Amino acid sequence: MPPTAQPADSAEATGRDGARASPETVLARLEGVGVTIRRTPILRDLSLRLHAGEAVGVLGANGSGKTTLLHVLATLVVPCAGRAEVLGHEVASGSGTPARPRIALVGHQPALYPQLSLGENLRFVAQLSGRDAGKADRALAAVGLAGAAHRRAESCSQGMARRAELARVLMVEPTMLLLDEIHAGLDRDATGLVDEVVARVRGRGGVCVLVSHEPDRLAGLADRLVRIIDGHAVRAGVGQGSEAAR
Amino acid sequence: MTVAAGPAPDARVTPLTQCLLLAGKDLRLERRTGEALLVTAPFGAVALLLVPLSVGVDTPLLRQLGPAMYWLVVLLFGVLVTLRTSAVDSAAQLAMLRLAGVSARVRLAGRALGNGLLLLGFELLLAPVAVLLYNPDLTGWAWQVPVFVLVAAGLAVLGALADALAAGLAGRTTLGPLLVAPVAVPLLLGATGVLTAARYGRPPWPWLVLVLTVDLVAALLAAWCARYLEELT
Amino acid sequence: MTGSDVTTAGGTAGDRAVFGRRLPLVTGAAIAAGLFAALLSPPDAVQGELVRLMYVHVPTAWVAYLSYAVTLVTSIGWLWRRSPGLDRLAAASAEVGVFFTGLTIVLGSVWGRPTWGVWWTWDARLVTTALLFFIYLGYLALRRAVPEPALRARRSAVFGVVAFAQVPLVHFSVLWWRTLHQPPTVLRPGDPTIDHTMLATLVLSVVAFTLLYALLVRARARLAEAQDALETADLVRPGAVAGAAVTAPQKEGSCG
To answer: Does the pLDDT value for residue C253 go beyond 70?
Structure first.
């Protein structure tokens, strides 16, 4: 039998209308969300609340729906059941767009155009979303890729591509940061970079959601852990992320 | 109305700017890969060379066939230009574009604009080859200038639509041409019609109006259906 | 997997659930009547016995166009209501349409050879019909290529509308192209005047073929429905949630 779904917290949203986010502010609220892909129910009656300034780790077996959960939070997948509200906007077909520029997603695969240089890739995103192109170069420098800005993405290692993705996060300065198996292919230095990026987003009152199938990695970074079992989100424990952030 | 005010983008980006940026990116990718102009265009030129070899060296016949063969090659191989591999957006790239605030309609428009410019280049590369090999009657050639632009535009939009419909499918490059070619017939008839009309001293503008109508209808259809191609579930 | 495993919404499994009970009888009677009338109708003054091909050729052409119109309407309907039934109907109608278009072209060719002396002529109607055949072959190819049902429904609905919207332009351009190339007027099928008996027979044949179309589309849509139900049943077995078979890591404990 599937365990009963429990919303991970019960605090109500307070600071609307662009008020400075307090830890009580709910940035995302999923209520009874269901997602079915290729006739397979991936998420079922999933409820979850994400608060300002927290980092939430999502655990689950392969194919349990962790990535789909991130896509719902990124407003890229519209739930077929339940309600999803992200950054004050309902996730429904054709909507969700206003929240998108404040969301950053780093997925399994790098979102880089292989034939463009790292600098061109980042400047492209900057210009598309109305940011100063100079931010792209500064972000690359911040992740230690200043010297590789002219290098084509196709000739970069997986670790470099991941760093470039983190540079994109720094450039976008998201309110909601979604990281999917971010530690895969990263060296020790870059792992520190992930910690820093997460701390920055949290420090600004944003929320980070980290997906991994390695509990050890998440426990050190996340305030609380949520496991997806049978399509539901279940509270899975408390991490040390809050101490680490201090 | 948002829950927490995040750092807003520095400036509001208009859909037109986004469209131009997307097309610019496509052209840059083409410059690096050379798929349309260095692979597909030579392939088209080979086709123009093979036709006389299969028809026979009947110079008056080839002179008559030349323009028709040219436009046939542009239509069939032009679809391949619109379905080039560098026009495939990976799921991660697509997610990035959507999060950057690029709507489905703008994405389709950007792809169509990129396609259109590449197709124009493709037409201009093949035109001298056709003239050289077939030595066609060039009476009223000036009428071909708007035809080049209008056919490239129509094919670009239809190709972008087919590309969106066949995105991520196994048989993308074989399915795409089958979806485009039968509905692109008015473009072929319009392009060759202008030439024939010019040669016989008739006004070619009705054919231009036909091609323009096809372009407009295709653009309207693309604008209408873009949102249906957007959603993931 | 036997036929009895598949139970459709209609109730019992088997041929009866797919084809229904009354419609096959009515269709059979109409086709028999049509055939009878076609054999009894007078031969044409010019074409002689060959005119009897008209009683098959014209209805198949009518059914082909009807199919595509139904596909268009159901495609728009799907985009509006997102009902899986409409998608199945669109697909079934397109399949039947492609079959009847092919049949129309072949029968037209068989009729054209003795009357016009050629298997094929560049008549605008013929060219448009052939293009329709390929457009909807593309539609069916697109459907086959998309494995995910919702994605398949959406993409084919969009193509169903986009393709049909281009058809008038295609037909108009071909018509115009023909006038430019001066079509031989001898090769125009059909007389302006038609004998009353022949007209009645033709109407009867059209009715019979329309019933046949309805029967085939309904059966095909029901088969698709049963197939969908079967695939869903395979996927939605108890506990068949993605990843459920894999044991989750237990380190943090305190689940629930």
So the answer is: no
pLDDT at B14: 92
Return the partners of chain C (3 or more C-beta pairs < 8 Å). Answer: A, B
Question: In chain B, positions 35-94, which contact chain A (CB-CB < 8 Å)?
Answer: 86, 90-93
Give the gap in angstroms from C-alpha A96 to the nearest C-alpha of chain B. 10
Cross-chain CB nearest to C138 (options B170, B179, B233): B179
Average pLDDT over residues C95-115: 92
Instruction: Tell me which of 3.30.70.100, 3.20.20.100, 3.40.50.300, 3.40.50.970 is the CATH number of domain A26-111+173-245.
Output: 3.40.50.300
Task: Spell out which chain B residues touch chain C, with contact meaning CB-CB distance below 8 angstroms.
Answer: 161, 165-166, 169-171, 175, 178-179, 181-183, 185-186, 189-190, 193, 196-197, 206, 210, 213-214, 217-218, 221, 225, 228-229, 231, 233
Subunit contact A44:C241, Cβ cutoff 8 A: yes
The answer to whether the Cβ–Cβ distance between C254 and A235 falls below 8 Å is: yes
Residue C61 has pLDDT above 80, yes or no: yes
When pLDDT is cut at 50, 70 and 90, the band that residue B228 belongs to is: confident
Residue A117 to residue A136: CA distance in whole angstroms: 12
3-state DSSP percent of chain C in helix, strand and coil, to 5:
75, 0, 25
For chain A, give the percent of residues with pLDDT over 70: 85
In this structure, which amino acid lies at residue B50?
L
Q: What is residue C236's three-state secondary structure?
A: coil
Which residues of chain A make contact with C239, given a CB cutoff of 8 A? Answer: 230
Structure confidence by residue, pLDDT tens digits, A131-176: 888 999 999 999 989 999 999 999 998 889 989 999 999 999 999 9
The amino acid at residue B207 is: W
For residue A6, give the nearest of C240, C247, C256 by CB distance.
C256
Which of C87, C250, C252 should one mutate to test binding to chain A, selecting the residue with the greatest count of A CBs within 10 A? C252
**To the nearest whole angstrom, how far is the Cα of A89 from the nearest Cα of chain B?**
7
| Lowest pLDDT segment from A141-150, A213-222, C90-99, C230-239 | C230-239
Instruction: Round to whole Å and give the CA distance between C34 and C201.
Output: 7
Cβ–Cβ contact C147 with A under 8 A: yes
CB C166 within 8 A of CB C131: no
Name the percent of chain A lying above pLDDT 90: 42
- DSSP strand pairing (A81-86 vs A103-106): unpaired
User: Contacts of residue C243 in chain A, CB cutoff 8 Å?
Assistant: 60-65, 228
Q: Is C204 within 8 Å of C37 (Cβ atoms)? A: yes
**Could you read off the pLDDT of B46-99 as tens digits, one per residue?**
999 999 999 888 899 999 899 999 999 999 999 999 999 888 888 899 999 999
Domain boundary assignment for chain C: 21-184+207-223
Out of C150, C170, C180, the one facing B233 most closely (by C-beta) is: C150
**For residue A63, what pLDDT is reported?**
81
Q: A231 and A13 in contact (C-beta within 8 Å)?
A: no
